[in-house]
Amino acid sequence: MLEVKGLYKTFNPGSVNEKKALQGIDLTLNDGDFVTVIGGNGAGKSTMLNMIAGVYPVDRGTITIDGIDVTKLSEHRRAKYIGRVFQDPRMGTAADMWLEENLAIANRRGRFRGLSWAISAKERREFREMLAKLDLGLEERLTTKVGLLSGGQRQAVTLLMAVMNDPKLLLLDEHTAALDPKTARNVLELSDRFIEENHLTALMVTHNMRDAIAHGNRLIMMNEGRIILDVSGEEKKNLTVEELLEEFSKLSGSEFANDRALLAN
Question: If you classify domain 1-81+167-265 with CATH, what class do you get?
Answer without folding.
Answer: alpha beta
